[in-house]
Every structure is written in structure tokens, then in C-alpha cells.
Amino acid sequence: MFFERPESGELAVLVHLELSAIDSPDDPREFEELALSAGADPVAFIFGQRAAPDPKTFVGRGKLEDIRQAVVDHGAELVIFDHALSPSQERNIERELKCRVLDRTGLILDIFAQRARTHEGKLQVELAQLRHMATRLVRGWTHLERQKGGIGLRGPGETQLETDRRLLRARIDSIEKKLEKVRRQREQGRRARSRAEVATVSLVGYTNAGKSTLFNRLTDAGVYVRDQLFATLDPTMRRVELPSVGAMILADTVGFVSHLPHKLVEAFRATLEEAGNATLLLHVVDAAAEDRLHLMEEVQNVLEEIGAAELPQLFVFNKIDLLADSEPRIERDDQGQPRAVWLSAASGAGCDMLVDAIAERLGEQMVSGLLLIPPQHSRLRAQLYAINAVQSERYRDNGDCELQLLLPRGELQRLLAPYRDGDQAPQWQPREAVGDHC
């Protein structure tokens, strides 16, 4: 953006090291999927082992020579490391290999830049890119580090690098202000939903677990779905009517990945806050993945980072159509509450069970009963219809209105509060708390 870089080609050499200092090494297959998702054409995969990264070039001299030979043999113009490289390491490796070098963070940023579609998503990606780029500017400006002198060339007393950093900082500040406005708008929406007692259910999970397919199955939203990593970046929210519970808001969010760059977590905080403020999290898991327990742990790590680890979760084990002899089912905990649902979002098998399980989890705060409203309080009747709380209606001979209601307990208390001390107050006859029988 602000400095010239070598033209990048799609032929790429992938480098993955197993470091003994890391207890749970990353899966090389996921790294290859990330490269493919970015549009790279891997022509060689270099593996290696080290006790610790080399401070100068991350890999040792022998492994660096292997990488250089692979670049020459295949005519590759890009080398991608499955690790986070420091700016100096990236610069030193580029100098040795004479081609462009990208680390895991830069690779994920590139994928995000390709997938962002909304204005908010593009702003979030640009912010993450600029923060990542800020530490790497020097490599592009080494020929302009000195202050210019001479007639017509004297500047304001700062080097070109300093000028560029100032422009970068100004752009970052501008984007942060725009995203802060987005955060405030989202917060207003959350407050409005909270006042209306509308539950928010957020889909979370590892990337490519099938969240968007499940979202489309439940809402008919037509969200973009592909069998690739980070197919969804921009959050989508839809209103869904649940049997015996009423309305809820279902939110589809960006997928998580191992070692999700902190720059991305910060940039996408406005989006991830939808998960952090949800009433219930649907943790979607690829049931066919061999390392699904590890992937579930990675999702928990990101949830902890955004302050959502303590929220109620309902596990959704998706893609059972890829498993042998696996049927849709609901698993319950010791208290009889739904803990997990096994289903296939692609075929729809078990999705009705998921709807029932969500209704059961959300229904704990719902109440049903009969409300008797005198004629002079017809405004209360209109308010109840406005929030879709009325299931049936009947009028008595004296003009009183009988309403069969199903609504959140807090909403009922809020609506009845102004009438408690008045004459001929509405009479509430509770039947049962929905979910008490579960």
C-alpha cells in the first residue's frame, strides 16, 4: 500500500517447522488449506524440526538453503511460513531468498482481505493490515531513510519513513473512529433487543465447521457458503421464531483458527462482541475432524480472549453425514438440559432437534399464562401484540379481554409494573414456566 514490494506470483513454497517448545504443534494440513484458500499454488512443502527458532532467519542455514533450492527449482515467487515471523526475520529471509516472504499472520490477513464484502468488514481488515504493516515499513523505504537536501528538495525535517509512519497512523486513527461508531451502533441494537427481551444466539466455532450452512438451514438467509477457510467474515443476523418460545436473533460470526492473530481479534472486536453478548452460544464442531477436541480447545481460547468463555454453550456436532453409523440425537447433562446436538446441516438431518434444544435452553426464562385486561387498559393489549406475545384472545361479556400469553418473565414484569397500584389492574394467572417440565 505505502511501499513497493516484489510482484507476487501464485507458485508458493510452504515451510512448516515443528518446535519442541510448543506442546501442541499446528496441523500442516490446515496450513496448506489456508494457502489454497488464499489462491496460492503450493509447489513444495518444506518440513523441519528445531528446538527453538533462529533469531535471525527463523530456520537454520541448512534449511534455508533447502528453501532457496526449492524456490529455484520450481520458479516460485512466494515463500509462506506457518509461523509468525518478526519484521527482521522476514526481511532477512527475503534478502537471502530474493523473493517475497509471508508469515501465517500475513497469509490470514490476505484471505480476510479477499473475503470482506461489507464496508464494516473491509474497514476491519484494513485496520488489521495497517497494524501489521506498521512494523514492516522500513524494508520498503531503505533508499529514502535520509532527509532530502538541495534546492526544491528540502522537506519538513522528517525522513520519508517518518512521513509514511505519520500517514499510516492517521489512517489507523480514522478507521478506529469509524469502527467505534459501528461499535456504538451495535451496542444500541443490543440494548434495544435487551429491552425487548429478545434472546441472541450466536454461532461460533472453528473455521469451515459448517456454521453458515447451518445458519442458512435455520433461517433461509442465503449466506455465502463454500468449503473453504474463512468463507464468512461479515456478521449476518436474522430473526427466527421458535416454537413455545417466540422470537430470537441468530447471528453468524467469523470462524476461529489456531493462533488467530491478535491484530485480527482487535480489529474484529466489533463483530466478535456479538458473540460476547449473546444469550446462548451454539458451538459448531466438525464431528468428522480427527482432531476435533483440539479444535474445540482453540475455540475456547478465542472465546476467553473476547470475554465469552463463561456464556452458556450448546455444542452442535455437525457433518454426521460424513461419519459411519451416526444418527441425529440430543445429548443431555446430569440436570436433563440439552448439552449437545448431533446433526448434518448439509442434509438437514437433526436440525429439528437443534431447534427444540435451543427452545428448551432459552425457554427457561419464558412464562405462559392468562392475562385479564379491563377495557380501559387496551394500550397494554397493543403492547403485547407488538412483541408477539399473544397466542390467543377472547372477550368476555363485560368487555374484559382474555389473552393467552407466552413471553419472557422480565418483559411481563416490565409491562405490568405501571398497573400494579391502580384500580382494576390487569390480572395475571400463570400456568407454567416453559421449560420447567424438561
From TrEMBL:
Compartments where located: Cytoplasm
Residue stretches making up the Hflx-type G domain: 199-366
GO molecular function term, any single one: ribosome binding
Assigned keywords, A-Z: Coiled coil, Cytoplasm, GTP-binding, Hydrolase, Magnesium, Metal-binding, Nucleotide-binding
Coiled-coil intervals, chain numbering: 158-192
Any one annotated GO CC term: cytoplasm
Stored Gene3D superfamilies: 6.10.250.2860, GTPase HflX, N-terminal domain, P-loop containing nucleotide triphosphate hydrolases
Taxonomy, superkingdom: Bacteria
Subunit structure, interactors included: Monomer. Associates with the 50S ribosomal subunit.
Protein name per Swiss-Prot or TrEMBL: GTPase HflX
Protein's organism: Microbulbifer thermotolerans
